[in-house]
Design goal:
The complex is a heterodimer of chains A (108) and B (115). Chain A has 108 residues and is an all-beta fold. Chain A contains no helices and eleven strands. In chain A, strands 2, 5, 6, 9, 10 and 11 form a six-stranded mixed β-sheet that branches. A three-stranded antiparallel β-sheet of chain A has the order 3-8-7, with no helix packed on it. In chain A, strands 1-4 form a two-stranded antiparallel sheet. The mean pLDDT of chain A is 92. In chain B, 0% of the residues lie in helices and 56% in strands. In chain B, strands 2, 4, 5, 6, 9, 10 and 11 form a seven-stranded mixed β-sheet that branches. In chain B, strands 1-3-8-7 form a four-stranded antiparallel β-sheet, with no helix packed on it.
Chain lengths: 108, 115
C-alpha cells in the first residue's frame, strides 16, 4: 500500500521554539517525498523535495528509510510559519499522494 | 512563466447548470492534474493527463468531464453537480508523470459552490 501518515492534526508552538512535523510513509521501492505548505488563502506551494536535500525558509527534512519517515524540522519557529503543511509521496503511477496535513500555529 | 493559472477563481452554479473550469501553464510541463480539496482536508486526485492523454481517472463521477485540448490547457467540464461537489478544485502540472523529482506546481484553484 502507498500511504502517507501525518499523526498530528494540529501543532502549536511559541515563536523561537523548535518545531518538528512528523511524516511517515508506506511504499515499496525508493520513495520520492515532498513537503508542501498552504498559507491561509494561498495556493499550495512546494516547500522541500527529499532528493535535493535543500533548506527552504529554515526548514529541513531528512529521509529515514529505516523508520520510513520524512519529518520536517525548523530550529526556531517564526509566526509567519503558521500554515497547513502536507507531506506527499509520489505514487507508482506518478500521482502525488498527500497526508492529511498538520496545521502549524506559531504563537507570539 | 512559472505559474499554473486557473479561471475562474470563484464559481457559483446551480445543479442544472453546465460550466467549465480552465487551467493553463506555459512551463512546457507534459503532465497535468485535477485535484479536489474540501475544507481542512488534503487534495484528492481526480484526473491525470500525460502528453495530452487521460492516464488516470480516480473513479470520478461522469458529471465531471476533463479535457486536454493541447499541452498547455486543461479543462474540467461540469454538469448536473450536487451540493456535495462544492470544493476547491486545484489544477497542477509537472514535467512528467513521474514528477522527475520536482513535484507539482499548483494553481490557486477555483472555489466552486453548487446551490
Amino acid at each position: 500500500a502507498q500511504r502517507v501518515t501525518q499523526p498530528e492534526k494540529l501543532l502549536s508552538v511559541f515563536k523561537g521554539a523548535p518545531v518538528e512535523l512528523k511524516c511517515n510513509y508506506s511504499y515499496s521501492g525508493s520513495p520520492e517525498l515532498f513537503w508542501y505548505v498552504q498559507y491561509s488563502r494561498q495556493r499550495l506551494q512546494l516547500l522541500l523535495r527529499h532528493i535535493s536535500r535543500e533548506s527552504i525558509k529554515g526548514f529541513t527534512a531528512d529521509l529515514n528509510k529505516g523508520e520510513t519517515s520524512f519529518h520536517l524540522k525548523k530550529p526556531f519557529a517564526q509566526e509567519e510559519d503558521s500554515a497547513m503543511y502536507y507531506c506527499a509521496l509520489m505514487g507508482s503511477q506518478g500521482n502525488l499522494i498527500f497526508g492529511k496535513g498538520t496545521k502549524l500555529s506559531v504563537k507570539p | 512563466d512559472t505559474e499554473v493559472t486557473q479561471t475562474p477563481k470563484h464559481l457559483v452554479m446551480g445543479m442544472t447548470n453546465k460550466k467549465s473550469l480552465k487551467c493553463e501553464q506555459h512551463m512546457g510541463h507534459r503532465a497535468m492534474y485535477w485535484y479536489k480539496q474540501k475544507a481542512k482536508k488534503p487534495p484528492e486526485l481526480m484526473f491525470v493527463y500525460s502528453y495530452e492523454k487521460l492516464s488516470i481517472n480516480e473513479s470520478v463521477p461522469s458529471r465531471f468531464s476533463p479535457e486536454c485540448p493541447n499541452s498547455s490547457l486543461l479543462n474540467l467540464h461540469l454538469h448536473a453537480l450536487q451540493p456535495e461537489d462544492s470544493a476547491l478544485y486545484l489544477c497542477a502540472s509537472s514535467q512528467g508523470t513521474m514528477g522527475l523529482n520536482y513535484g507539482y506546481t499548483f494553481g490557486s484553484g477555483t472555489r466552486l459552490t453548487v446551490v
